[in-house]
Design the sequence.
């Protein structure tokens, strides 16, 4: 079991089971939403995610048609995103988890649009845009 929260701790949650590897997204939307050089996301099945507190503090923003980015309305902390086309899945923001997680990095994607000031210095696989299935 893994636990996490938003910045102000109003929204608390738990994730059941082992965590899938972290995916590093370098697209412009993830950079803007996270305020950093990339988004660090953990793909989850929604059945493995459970809110412990703060449901009333959740706010969703539709950043593109069918994609919602969910954050805490009190502190603005990003929590997860979800697609209307995949209702059983979500992408949890890795930084919201309390450590240690035991999670590992998997790959980088949308590297063709990465921040020019952030070098990728690891040997993980890189994809120019969306990761091929």
Sequence:
């Amino acid at each position: 079991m893994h636990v996490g929260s938003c910045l102000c701790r109003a929204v608390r949650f738990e994730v059941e089971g082992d965590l899938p590897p972290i995916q590093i997204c370098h697209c412009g939307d993830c950079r803007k939403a996270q305020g950093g050089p990339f988004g660090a996301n953990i793909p989850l099945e929604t059945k493995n995610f459970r809110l412990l507190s703060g449901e009333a503090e959740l706010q969703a923003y539709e950043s593109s048609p069918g994609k919602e980015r969910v954050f805490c309305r009190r502190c603005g902390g990003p929590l997860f995103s979800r697609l209307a086309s995949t209702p059983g899945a979500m992408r949890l923001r890795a930084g919201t988890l309390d450590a240690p997680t035991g999670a590992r990095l998997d790959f980088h994607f949308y590297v063709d649009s990465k921040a020019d000031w952030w070098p990728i210095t690891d040997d993980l696989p890189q994809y120019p845009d969306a990761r091929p299935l």
